[in-house]
Amino acid sequence: MNAPPIVSVADASFRRIFGAEPSLRSFAPGRVEILGNHTDYNEGLVLGVAIDRHTAVVGRCVEGTKATIHAAAFGETDTIELAEPNVDPGPEGRWTRYVLGVHWALRGKFDSPLGFEAVIAGDVPLGAGLSSSASLQASFGLFLNALHGVKIPDDDARLELARRLRKAENGFVGVASGLLDFVTVLFGRPGHAVFLDCRTLEIRRPSLGETPPAIVVLDSRTSRQLADGMYNIRRTECERIVDQFRKIKGTNAIASLRDITPEELSAHWKYLDLVGRTRARHVLLENIRVADGVAALEAGDLEKLGLLMSRSHKSSRSDFGNSSDALDALVAAALTAPGCLGAKLSGAGWAGCVVALVRPGQLDDFVQAAISGYRNETDTEADVTVAYASGCSDS
Ligand code: GLA
Predict the structure, then answer these.
(1) What CATH number should be reported for the domain whose range is 5-204?
(2) Which of 47, 56, 305, 385 is the most buried (most CB within 10 A)?
(3) What residue ranges do the domains of the chain occupy?
């Protein structure tokens, strides 16, 4: 697809910092989660859309094995010795940790490290639940492949890259996230959503229709760090139920919540861990909502998709416990605004963004009403990003 505007911003920054023209350019989008909240690491189903806000990495190959990387958002430049066998992750939350993680996860793939200079620039809002980190990691992963002359010619190669990026985030950055973010940002396309079955790794790109809804991202202006612990706690709570089912059924053949049906969960409800069982109920019913949502999209039924999103939010709030007063107020404001098909929290939760699908003809009225509804409840001005489906650079 054509390069988004942020690539020119990165180009200009590269010229200023390195006094030369970059010869390699990659970009990858942010994403919203339409359905499938906390289902990915439970081997469930997810439906996301890559959005037209991107992270660009531009640069050129240089002699030696050093990388000099400038992050425009922070005005910081760092140098990495790529031949160093022990990669030190550095401080949590810093941009370098993501970059080093991708280098760490990909280096086995290339014969020997190649030195480079690069600039990273992005317009994906940071820490707002739009996966700015996956966008950075995917863009940097595409850049490293291009630098080494390795093509990503098809969906198999994209999936392989997504898995390596996940490995970087799990094993290096230290966040036990699933495949949702990486698959969505690498497989997204204008006009399409991305469906992923995290067990079979089946991927489909259902069309958003001839008049796609606007994807309105409402930022509650509350933020959190993904690695702050809550995410990993939820993961453990889900695993606890898997463990209990292994004992109940006397078999280790239960690999994840995907091996348990909602009926089985109800049947054993009173014997299960009090917290874990409500988390599991959310995940199992959310899988059904994703399957129904994909069918709705394929039938062109956006009303139904919107309804499923709103149900998903309710379930995140009451069963999964990953909403917040701010996110609930924002969803309530969105749902009463004109043109809203559905709204829910997007991504990890606890803070950050709500995603709403909105009929394009009513976009302005929607935005005004949602902002004033949220302001009346919380005295806070929500930030609004109107987005459409997008994709990453070809390789
Ligand atoms: C974060 C993670 C994803 C996914 C969502 C919740 O965005 O990075 O892998 O688990 O939370 O659905």
Answers:
(1) 3.30.230.10
(2) 56
(3) 5-204
102-157 pLDDT per residue, tens: 999 998 888 889 999 999 999 998 877 789 999 999 999 999 999 999 999 999 99
Tens of pLDDT along 245-261? 999 999 999 999 999 99
pTM of the model as a whole? 0.93
Confidence class for position 223, pLDDT limits 50, 70, 90: confident
Contact 29, 52 (CB under 8 A): yes
Ligand 1: residues within 6 Å at CB?
33, 37-38, 40-41, 131, 177-178, 180-181, 347-348
Render the burial of 115-124: b for 16+ CB within 10 Å, e for the rest.
bbbbbbbbbb
Ligand 1: residue of 33, 169, 226, 233 to mutate (most ligand atoms within 8 A of CB) is 33
CA–CA dist 34, 212 (Å, integer): 14
Closest CA to 187 of 388, 391, 42, 35: 391
Q: What is Dmax (Cα atoms) for the chain?
A: 67
Q: Which of 306, 379, 377 is CA-nearest to residue 344?
A: 306
% of the chain with per-residue pLDDT over 70: 98
Residues written for the chain: 395
